[in-house]
Amino acid sequence: MPTSLHGRAAAMAVIALVASVALAALARSILPLGAAFPLKSAICFAIVGLIATGRINAANHPFAEIGPANQVTTARAVFVALLAGGIGESSEPVFQAAAAVTAGVVTVMDGVDGWLARRTGMSSAFGARYDMEIDALLIQVLSILAWQYGKAGAWVMLSGLLRYVFVFAGWVWPWMERPLEPSRRRRAVCVVQVAALIAAIEPFVSPPISTAVAALGLAILAGSFLVDTRWLVLHRREQVA
User: Fold this and answer.
1) Percent of the chain beyond pLDDT 70?
2) Which pLDDT score is estimated for 239?
């Protein structure tokens, strides 16, 4: 058994990678997915696993064990990787339904990892960031699928890109990386955005309704980013302790 924190994180990532390949193969046995589907899903999860393993350390995760909360987040990442594997696949209603159900499972699990972290007393900065980045990836993948399925125009992909534009802005302007104050509004907006995209990709929801739902979710998300950006601008001259 791995004895270091990085070793445990790497072992968890490898197990999850194997699980992603197995689940992708199972999905191919049920749905007429392309031969590249398992590879696409595996590559997506491998990238997530490598980044997560590289970022975890004693400073942001002061526990010897990975913890059940991070294990659940990793399981969520596996399902998001399967959704990502669906990019470029068929847009038939059965695929839309499968994507919506998978995204729903990921969303339900999102309420479990935070609860487990608090329940086990293993809340950490790493876990919070890991959870947030999986949420962001889910939104990005769903927005691409919404466009692929013809539920909204290419603009819908801004739903996911906003997060990465925000991160890029932090590289350009260091004051944009200042930690934001805890906010229930941010969590609620994330849930609304995911719910809007899941609703949009449902096979029984078509334009213009799907377009309107996706646009509403994007407008709410953009408003939340605007609030956070305004706060950062107002506090840009303050020193971070």
Assistant:
1) 98
2) 56
